[in-house]
Each structure stands twice: as C-alpha cells, then as structure tokens.
Sequence to fold (95 residues):
Amino acid sequence: MALKRVGELGVYEYQQNVKDKDLSAPPVSPVDGDRYIVGPTPTGAWTGHTNKIAWYYLAAWNFDVPTEGWNVWIEDEDKFYFHNGTAWVARPDGD
Fold:
C-alpha cells in the first residue's frame, strides 16, 4: 500500500480515517497506514501523546498534533469527530 502524506496538514480541515479514538496502548499487530487517536492514559510507544493522531509506518509510530478544525471519521464508531482546539468532539450532526 502506497502511503502519501499531506504536505502541510495545517491547511486542511480533514484527516484520513482513524480506527479508534479510545485506545491508550498501541495495538499489538499494527500495519503500515493504521491510524488512531491516542486515548487519555497512553502507555508504551504512545506515552505522552494523548489526543494526538498516531500513525504507523515502517515499524514505527509517528504522531500528528491536531489543530482546531481537523475532522476525522472514527471507523469503530461510524462517526465524524472534530478537534475544537483542545479535544476531539463528536460532530453535532452525528455523521
């Protein structure tokens, strides 16, 4: 799978889908391209990255710091969330 990163993330209001937003520990067997919003009490490779978007590539976790206005689709909830500048919040329209 070819991965392409957005050149300047701060310019765009949406991000690629994330699998889950409640995990605090990295999954055991991630694959390149997996993305998660790090949960409230991160452990392991995610320590210190609460609420950031963790993405896995070439056997390493990378982290994007969200800014106000970012939107993501949370796959396990089938809902859109947006970042309000401090936290991820479900969009009022629900989808």
